[in-house]
Amino acid sequence: MVNHLNLIAWLAALLQTALFVAMAPLFTIWVKRIKCTLQNRLPPPWSQPYRDFRRLFAKEVLLARTASPVFRIAPYIVCGTTIMAASIIPFVWVNIPFAVMADAIVLVGTLALGRFFLALAGMDVGTSFGGMGSSREMTFAALAEPAMLIVVFALAMLSSSTNLSTIIGFVLDQPLALRPSLLFGLLALILVGIVETGRIPVDNPATHLELTMIHEAMILEYTGRHLALMELAAQLKLTIYAVLTANLFLPWGISRSLDAAALGVSFVALTAKLAVLGALLAVGETLVAKMRLFRVPTFLAVAFTLALIGMLSFIMLEGR
Amino acid sequence: MIALAVTLLMPALTALVLAFVRPAPVGTRINMSATTAGFAASVWLAWNVLTQGGIHGAQFQVDAFNVYLIVLTSFVGMTTSIFSGPYMAHELELRRVTPRRMRLYHASFQGFMFTMLLSLSTNNLGVLWVALEGATLATVLLVSLYRTPESIEAAWKYFILCGVGIAQALFGTILLYFAAARVVPDPEQALQWSVLYAHAAQLEPVVVGIAFIFLLIGYGTKVGLVPLHNWLPDAHSEGPTPMSAVLSGLLLNVALYAIIRIKMITDGALASGVAHDPHLAGKLMMGFGLLSFMIAGLFLHRQRDIKRLFSYSSIEHMGLMTFAFGLGGPLATFGALLHMTVHSLTKSAIFVTVGHASQIAGTQKIEHIRGLVRTQPVVGWGLLVGSIAIAGFPPFGVFTSEFLLLSATMKSWPWLAVPLLAGLAVAFAGLFRHLHSMVFGPSPAGQQPIPLNPVPVALHLAFVLWLGLSIPAFLARWFDEATRLISGSGLL
Amino acid sequence: MTAYADLPLIEQAIRTFAALILVTSFALLAQSRVVAAIQVFAWQGFLLAALTALVAWNSGLTHLYISAALTLALKALFIPWLLIRQARRLGILRDLDAVIRPGLTLMAAGALVIFCYNVVVPVREFTQVVTRDAIAVSLALVMIALLMLITRRKAITQVVAFMSLENGLFFAAVTATQGMPMVVELGIAFDVLIAAVIFGVFFFHIRDSIESLDVDQLSRLREIND
Fold first, then answer.
1. Is residue B415 within a helix (H) or strand (E), and if so which, with residue range?
2. Is residue B442 part of a domain?
3. Residue B275's pLDDT is what?
4. Structure pTM?
C-alpha cells in the first residue's frame, strides 16, 4: 500500500516525526519525575522541559573566543541528524515511507554522524573538559556501535531485511516464540542504549560538573539556543532508544494502517510501553551506583558479547 | 566368568582393605599377595579363554586380544609390587614418605590395577572411559606422593592435561553413541563394543570419523603421543619409581588398547564409504605414531634426568606401536602385539633398576649417577642389559618385534622405512651417550649398596630374552589369534 | 524461518536454555573474581540441570530426571560449595585472577563458536532437528572452557574451567543423544565427584609447596632447566 508519491503517507510520516520530537521531552520528564518520587524529592512539573527550551531560546548566545564555525553549526547538525533518525523509526505507524529509503544501518550511521559533530564541538573550544568528554564518547562509541550493528544484523537475519518496518512486521506476523536471539538482542540493545544515552551507571545526566561526566562535558560551553538544541537532541536520543526497544521487541499494538482508531490504539499502547520502560529506567538508575569509568568498556564488552551470542544462537539454534 | 570376577574383584576389594590398613609393612605384604593372587587368577582366565573360547557377555568381553593384555598387566603389577616392597621401605627410612602416605600409596596402587583391568575387560565403551579417567584419578595423588614442588607441579600437569585430553575422548564416545543410537535400537546396547563392531558397516561414516579423531586425541594423550605428551616425562620423573614402572608398562598400553578397539569399529564404518578414505583411522595413527617416534627420539639427547630419559624412550616406543597398529595387516599387528609385550616387560624392568640406581646415587641427575657396576653390580648390569634390550639389540625380544615392524613397513610403505630406521638410530644414540659413564665410570666415594630384590628385573629381562630367542608355540598361537581379531587374518 | 516459531514451546525453551548456558560460558571466561567465577559456574550447573529436566519432560525418558537431579546436586550445589569452602579456607575467595585482554579473549571465544559450528556442518547433514545444533553448542562450550583453562593463572579458576568443560560434555550427552546408558552416566558422575575432591585436596598441596595458588609459579619442570 506504500506508494512513494502518496502524499498522505508522507504527510502522516512527517506528522509522526513531529509527534516523536514533541513527546521526547515528555518521556524525559516522566523518567525524572519517577526518580524524584523514588528519591523522596519534589518532582518538577510536567511542563518543565518545554519551559526550559523557551527560556534557552530567548537567551542570547555566548561564544568562546576560540570557537570556530564548527562549534556554531554543530548543534544544528546534531539535532538535525537525531530528528532524521527519529523519522526513520516507526513510531505509531509501521509502514512509513521513509523506511524504504533508510534502513536500520542508516539509522546507526545517522546517529554516528551526530556523535561525530558532537565530539568535534566538544573539542572545538579547547577546554580540557570538552576534550575529555569527546575522547570518552568516541572510545565508548567504538565499542557500542559494533554491538548495536550486531543487534541489527541479528534482527536482519531473522526477518531477512534491514528495513525497520519489515522487521517490525515480521515480529508482528509470527506467533509468539521464545527466541534466544531476540532475548539477547533486547538485552544488548538496552545495554547499548544506556551507554549511548549517557544514563547511570555509565554517565549521570543529572550532573553538570563532575570529573567523570561524558555527555555534559562536551556541551559545557554551549549557551542559549545552541544548548537548547543539544538538550533536545539528547532527550530525543533517549526516546529513540526507548521506542526502538519497545517497537522492535514488543511491537504488539502498533498500527499497520492509517486508520484513525488503529492509530489511537497504537498511540495508547506505545505510551503505556514507554511509561513502563521509563519507570524501569528510573528504578534502575535509583538502585544502581555509577560505575568507574574504566569499567565501561567491560560493560560494553558484555553488550557486544550478548549481541554476538544472540546472532550466533540465531544461526545455531533457530536454523531451519 | 568366575576367573574374570576374581581378577577384577581382587584389586578392587584389596584397595578398600588397604585404605584402612595402618602399618606399612602389613600393607606392603597384602599388596604383594593380592597382585600375586590376581596374576594367578588372570592366568586361569587366560587358560579358560584359550581352551574354551572367550567371554562375550553384555558387560564384559574377553577374547584372545585383551586377555593377553590382562595377563601382561597383572604380571607387571605383581613384579612391580614385589619390587616396591623394599624400595618403598627404603623411602620410608629416608623419610621421603610418611606411613599415612604409604597407606594412600598401597590403596591407590590397587585402585589403579582395578581400573586397568576394568578398562581391558569391559565391553562398554562408556565404562572404558570411566575406568581410564579413574586411572588418572587413582594415580594423580601418587605422582605427588613426595610433596616436593616439582612433584606437585608434575601431578597438576598430569591431572589437567590428562583430564582435558580424556574429556575429548568422552566427546568422541558421545558422538559414537550418537551414531550408534540410530542403528542399534536398544540404547543400553549402543555403547557395547561387540554390538558396535557387529553393526560397524551401518554406522554413519562422517560421525564415526569425527568421533575417532576426538577419541584418538583423548586416549592419545594418555598414550603420550606427541604433541600431547608433556605430562608424561614429568609424571614419570617425579612420582615414586614403582609408579613410573606401572605408568609406562601398563597405562600407556591400556590407552593404546582403547584406541585399537575404536579403530576396529571405525575401519568397519569407513570401509563402505566411497567418499571417505577407508584407512583414515590407520593413517592418522601412523602420522601421530611416526611423529611421536621421531620427536621423542630427538628429545632423548637433551635429557639430564634419568627417569625423564626413559620416559621419552616410552613415548618413542608407544609411537612405534601406534604406527604399527595404524599400518594394519597381520605382520605389523603381530609385531606390534609382540612389541607391546616386550616393551612393557623391559621398560618396567628398567624403571625398577633406575629406581635402585637413583637410590644408590641419591639423585636422579644423570651426571651424578656414576659407577653403578662397582657399587652394586646387580643394578649396573641390570641397567646395561635393560638398555641394550630396549634399544633393540639382538638377541632380545625388542629386536624381533622391531624387525617384524620394519619388514611390514618395507612391504606396504617402503619409503617410511627410512625415517623409521633413522629414528631407531637416533634413539639408540640418545640412550647410549649417557649409559657408559653411569654404569662403568668411577664410583663416587661413600656410595653404598641398597637392599633390593633382584627377582623382578631378572624375571622380566629373562622373558624378553626368551621372546627374542624363540617365541614359544602356544604364545605364538595366542598372538596369532589376537592378530586375527584385530586385522582380520592371521600370520601363521 | 517460521519453522522455529512453529516448534512446541518446550523445544523453544530447551534452545533458550542452551543459549543461556552458552552465555554463562562466556561469562565464566570474562569473570576475573574467584568467587564470582564459582557462582557463575553454579548457575551454569543449575541451567544444565534445568535443561536436562526439560529434555526429560520433552522426551519422556525417566532416566534423564535422575541425571538432572545428579547434575543439580553435583554441578550446581556440591562442587560450587566445595570450591567456595576451599577458597575461603585458603583465603583466596575475594582474589582476582585477572583476565588478560578480556575483549580479545571474548572475541576469540566468539570466533571459536563460529569455528565449532562450521566443524559440525558435515555432521548436521545427517541428523535430526534438535540434535544437530546441540553438538555445535556443546563443542563450543568445550572449546570456550579450554580457552579459559589456558588463559587462567590460578589453580582454582582452572578447576572451574575444567568442570565447565565437563558441563559442555554433559550438555552434548543430554541434548544430542538424550543421555548415556545409566551405568556410564553414574560412572562419569562418580569420576567428577572424585576429581572435585582430589582437586580440593590438591589446592592445599600446591599452596603448601609454592605458597601461592598461581599456577604460573609451577614452572620448574622444563625441558632444559639447569
1. none
2. yes
3. 60
4. 0.88
